[in-house]
Amino acid sequence: KELRLGMSAPEATPWGAAAKAMAAKVAELSGGELTISLYFNNELGDGQTMARQIARGRLDMGVLSNVEASLVLPEYGLLNAPYLFTSEKQADCVIDNHVGATFDAAFRKAGAVYLAPIEVGDMMIMAKSPFRLPSDIAREKIRTSPAPTDTYYVQATGAEAVPLSVPETMPALKTGAVVAITTPIIMGVAGGYWAEAPDFIMTDHSHQIGALLLSRTTWDRLDESQRNALTEGAKAMSGLRQGVRAAEKALLAKATAGGAHVIELTPEEKAAWMAVAPAAQAKIVASIGGDAGEVWAKLQAASAACAN
Amino acid sequence: MMAYIVVAALLIGDVLAREVVGIPILGSQSIAVLGAIVAGFVGLSLATASGSHLRPAVFDGLVPSSLDRYVDRGSDLIAAAFYLAIAVFAVRFVLESMSAGDRAAVLYFPLWPIQMVMPYAFLSCAIRHAAYAMEPALKVHHEAAA
Amino acid sequence: MATLFLVLLIFGLLFFRQNIVVLLLAATAYVHLVWGDGKIEYLVEDMWISLNSEALLSIPMFLIVGNIMTQGAIARRLIRIMVLISGPLPGGMGVATILSCAIFAAISGSSPVTLLAIGTILYPALLEQGYDKRFALGSITSGGTLGIVIPPSIPLIVYGLATEQSISDLFIAGIVPGLMLTAALATYSLWVNRHLPSRRFESSELVSALREGIWALLLPVILLGGIYSGYFTATEAAAVAVLYALFVEIVIHRELSWRDFRATTVSTARMLGMLFPIIAVALSLKSLLTIMRVPHELTQWIIELTTNKYLFLILVNLLLLVVGCFFDVISAILILAPLLLMPATALGINPVHFGVMMVINLEIGFLTPPVGMNLFVAMTAFREKFSTVCIAVLPFMLIILCVLLLVAFVPQISLLLL
Ligand code: NA
Ligand code: NA
């Protein structure tokens, strides 16, 4: 049986490598009975389209970003809320021990099987000039991804959020329509935005968690051993954690060598960025609606349990 | 037409909100896109109504012109049946979308009410062609030939 | 057997005088049934997806602007100025057409949009000034494609994202080839129209035309200024243009009635309704071909065929020309750029140079049947036969092809400013 897996990332990225490892593992575990065909670079349509097609059963599987997976289950977007996690260790602990329990059933109900969380990496702000505090960018225009989490956080900092799609981002930086952008580290550096925005403010305001989703329609057609092969094989995606962090380091080093500046914040400066998060979090929970309040309480409890 | 006014108003509203008031309208672009989709499907049935779709006329000479009336009626009948079939599949698509909970980006509202424009557009094309098959005089004649 | 039935189906529909939309949709539905997943719902979904794109949003907007300008007085007044300025040069308006396309292209980043915005004003003007219809159609339809080479260019951004190349470098690398293309097309217009009579320069007439046309002239100024100063994006510019054009025609020129405006939006919706099913069919077929890995296998085949750098470049360009016939630029880049770049860099080809070459090559795809976006847009907007448009763009296509060869084999052209 052949399953189609679509993703936005190119083949030569940590996500491409992890997907290939998973496909190999699934083939091995199922004794060749289940093969996964990989389609990179949005070959099967953009992430939003893939997300909807998984829920509807046209596409079998997808490696989706948090924003895309949130189209299947809006509450999943809460994982992106600013400073839900204050350290990488805390994030890892929540993802390893609590995320499945929080979202498995809800994804099932929404038509998808949640096979694995997908590490996308930390967020930073890339700017045309160096700054360290939210007050430095008051009323400046900052590009956000067109999603509630990112946009409401930037608004809470006192800056002017300008939600822009990826193709519109570079022209906006070039013309000065925005003076900075929020972005996951890898996408920001690899996208070449640092030619226009060479100052990287390492706010780490959110730890991006995507999802490996399988269509429930597909799941229902598989037998027990095939399902086991998939759930076991999906564990190969946990290798992404190392892969993504190594890629972040390598890309930041490459950009620094090319003239970009990485601005690490002091604990006091970081505290100023965190101080504005609660207002944004409340607004995000309200805007998502549905079970968002309940899920948010669970995530905060998980986050607290992982604090040490 | 309303769809376009909504699209333009949203885009301009977004510019004004951002540049003058300083607060962007989150999701205005994706609503504008939905407006353009509705306009596209309404346009499909408008184009059918005015007979402005291009039509390859390569085989027109095969039939003696005395029989033209009958071929044209058959043509409308076939087109009506075709659009009716597509309308049925469009209904099935919307039902699937409804049960899967397809949502709009950013604002997360369900898409199926807007997707209803597809069965509507195809059905209106089917009805139009069926009417032409029964009463050819209804047809507006400015077909372009390619 | 299945293929035979497809051919029979098409012939049957042709015999029964079905229009192109029914024909294409029925054939694609059949393809979905036989070679795809067997669900016609997917074709319906692909029609939805084909319209569900922010990039496409500006097309109906610029269609409306074009219609408002032609219904009202903006277009007429702009053309008068253009004619007076370019009059002293034989074939001057042909050059003006190409340059207008290049300038507008620099704003919109989109081929069909450039075509529409420039074409709705200049196509009737060229005909009125005695230019050959074939030249007028060809220059506007192909001039529109300059939009994707001259930065900002959406395809170059996509290439940068797909291959992890610097988008700024790609933009800079696109400048010289873009200017070369513009110069080549402009030179051809001068040469082919050298026999057209030139007119004496009338300064007093120009001054009065300028005074009359000042509000119309402000339209491109506002668009360009707004985009380059960062007040709005290219998509939003289209909406601002609608608002401005309406304001000028209703309040200043007073030559557009509410009924005209209604008629304008209806005809725009109709144009889009004719256009998008064709785009939807292309999208639907593309996804089937991708699932069957047709582009991957073609690429693999080329890589195995040669290790000579120049032969590789020739083969890649041939492949891209073929792919460009069926795929849109964005999908072609997303699928092929990562596949082709690896062997290309192994042969010592600069990735930025390779990207610019790819985009120029795929630019030609806008002009090649069966799926040539600009061909369809021109056919729809100017109400000409598909075959007429295809023939009209031929000489321009050859020129672009020559520039492509230069850019492919002389990497310095793209890398000059880097
Ligand atoms: Na451009
Ligand atoms: Na083409």
Mean pLDDT rating of chain A: 93
Q: Low-confidence stretches of chain A at least 5 residues in length (pLDDT < 50)?
A: none
Oligomerization: heterotrimer
Helix-strand pattern of chain A? EHEHEHHHEEHEHEHEEHHHEHHH
Average per-residue pLDDT of chain C, rounded, comes to 83
Distance between the termini of chain C: 55 Å
The largest β sheet of chain A comes out as: 10 strands, mixed
- Report the β-strand fraction of chain C as a percent range: under 5%
Bound molecules: sodium ion
Distance between the termini of chain A: 45 Å
| Tally of helical runs of chain A | 14
What percent of residues of chain C adopt helix (DSSP H or I)? over 70%
Instruction: Give the structural class of chain A.
Output: alpha/beta
Low-confidence parts of chain C lasting 5 or more residues at pLDDT below 50?
Answer: none
Strand fraction of chain A equals: 15-25%
Shape of chain A: globular
- Which outline of chain C best applies? globular
User: How many beta-strand runs of chain C?
Assistant: 0
Cα radius of gyration of chain A in angstroms: 19 Å
The class by helix and strand makeup of chain C works out as mainly alpha
Transmembrane segments (chain B): 27-47, 77-95, 107-127
Pfam family, one (chain B): DctQ
InterPro entries (chain B): DctQ
Protein name (chain B): TRAP transporter small permease protein
Polypeptide structure, described:
The complex is a heterotrimer of chains A (308), B (146) and C (418). Chain A is of the alpha/beta class. Chain A is 48% helix and 19% strand. Chain A is built from 14 helices and ten strands. In chain A, helix 1 links the parallel strand 1 (2-7) and strand 2. The longest helix of chain A has 18 residues, at 240-257. Chain A is globular. The N and C termini of chain A lie far apart (45 Å). Chain B has one domain. Chain B is 66% helix and 0% strand. In chain B, helix 1 (2-21) runs antiparallel to helix 2 (28-49). By secondary structure, chain C is mainly alpha-helical. Chain C has one domain. Chain C has 21 helices and no strands. Chain C has helices at residues 2-15, 20-34, 41-51, 54-71, 74-86, 92-108, 111-128, 133-143, 154-163, 167-192, 203-212, 214-228, 234-253, 258-291, 294-305, 309-326, 329-346, 351-365, 373-382, 386-409, 412-415. Chain C is globular. The model of chain C has no long low-confidence stretch (mean pLDDT 83). Chains in contact: A-B, A-C, B-C. The structure holds sodium ion (2 copies). One sodium ion (NA) binds next to helix 6 of chain C. One sodium ion (NA) binds at residues 105-106, 109, 147, 150-153 of chain C. Chain C: This is TRAP transporter large permease protein. Chain C: Part of the tripartite ATP-independent periplasmic (TRAP) transport system. Chain C: Belongs to the TRAP transporter large permease family. Chain C: Its main location: membrane. Chain C: Keywords: Cell inner membrane, Cell membrane, Membrane, Transmembrane, Transmembrane helix, Transport.
